[in-house]
Amino acid sequence: VQLCPWKMSSGEPVQPATKRLRLGEMKDELTRSPWPTKVVSRTVSPMPPLSSPSPPASAVPAPPPHKSALVVDERTDHATLHSMPLSVVIFGATGDLARKKLFPSLFQLCAQGHLPRQLNIVGYGRSKVELAAFIAKQCVHVPEGDARLSKADFCSRISFHAGSYDASSSYQQLHALLSAREETHPSRRPGNRLFFLSVPPTVFGTVAEMISRNVRAPAVARGGFTRLMIEKPFGRDSASFEQLNQLTAAHFRESQLFRVDHYLGKEILLNIPTLRWANSVFEPLWSREHIETVQITFKEDLGTQGRGGYF
C-alpha cells in the first residue's frame, strides 16, 4: 500500500508522500498521518449493474409512492417473479406471427419453467371471436404430448378480449380483466404485465399511449412491472424509426421497451459477424469501399399471403 499525495481543501498542494507500509501498519499510519491521503490498493470492487439512461422526468411520470409496494426490476430474483401473477397480452393475437411463433414460444417457456405456472395469456384483437375457435386455430402449432406441460393445461390459461386499438374504453375493460385475474392469485402480490405488439407500425404509438394511460399505471403503482415488446418492422428508415421511437419513449422508459426482430435471432445471422471478422479473406473486403449493395433473399416454403404489408 502506498500513501499518495492529495490536495488540501484550500487547493494548496501538499508535499509528496512516498512512505510505503506493510499491511498491518496501514491503519495506525492513516490515523497518525498529518496530510490528507488516499489509499491505492489492488482490491477490485464489483462493477455496478449497467442500466439504460432514463428519459427526462417530464416524459414518463413517476408512479405514486406506496408503502407496501414490491419494487420489481432487473435485479429481482427468479423465485420472486415466479411467485407473482404475470399477464401476457398479445395485440394482433389473430395474426400469422401469433399462430406460428408467439403461442408455441409461450408454451415452451412455460414447459421449461421460465414463466409462472399460473400464467395469464390474453389475446387482443379488433374482431370478436369464439374462444374455442380462436384457440383451435392459433394454437395449432403448440405441440401435443409434452410430458412437462399438456397442451390442454396451457390453452386453459388463454382468454380473448376484443377491442379497438384507439378507444380508451377497450383498454379500461382490459385493465379490469387483468386486475380480476391478479386479485385471485394465491400470492396476493402485485401483478406483472407484458404487452406484445404484433400489429402494424402505424398503430405502435397509439397502442403504447393507450396502454400507458389505461392499463400500465395502476399496475406500476401497486409495485408490479410493465414491459412493452414491439415486433418488427420498427420503421422503414432512420426517419420513421426516430418518429416511432419518440412516440413510444413518450410513454415508456427505455428499460421497459423491447424491440424484437425474430429473424435477427436466427443462428445463421448471428454467425455473420464471426464469418467476417475471423476470416482474413472477408475482413478487409467487407466495407463500403468494396460493397455496392446488399441483397437479402427469404427462402421459405410459405408464401406472404396476408402479410404483404409487412414486406
Automatic annotation (TrEMBL):
Keywords: Carbohydrate metabolism, Glucose metabolism, NADP, Oxidoreductase
Family of this protein: Belongs to the glucose-6-phosphate dehydrogenase family.
Domain Glucose-6-phosphate dehydrogenase C-terminal: 274-311
Chain intervals with Pro residues compositional bias: 46-66
InterPro entries the record matches: G6P_DH (IPR001282), G6P_DH_AS (IPR019796), G6P_DH_C (IPR022675), G6P_DH_NAD-bd (IPR022674), NAD(P)-bd_dom_sf (IPR036291)
Enzyme class, spelled out: oxidoreductase
Keyword Plastid: no
Single Gene Ontology MF annotation: NADP binding
One Pfam family, short name: G6PD_C
Pathways involved: Carbohydrate degradation; pentose phosphate pathway; D-ribulose 5-phosphate from D-glucose 6-phosphate (oxidative stage): step 1/3
Name this polypeptide is given: glucose-6-phosphate dehydrogenase (NADP(+))
The keyword Oxidoreductase appears for this protein: yes
Glucose-6-phosphate dehydrogenase NAD-binding domain span: 89-271
Biological process, per Gene Ontology: glucose metabolic process; pentose-phosphate shunt, oxidative branch
Enzyme Commission identifier(s): 1.1.1.49
Disordered: annotated span: 26-66
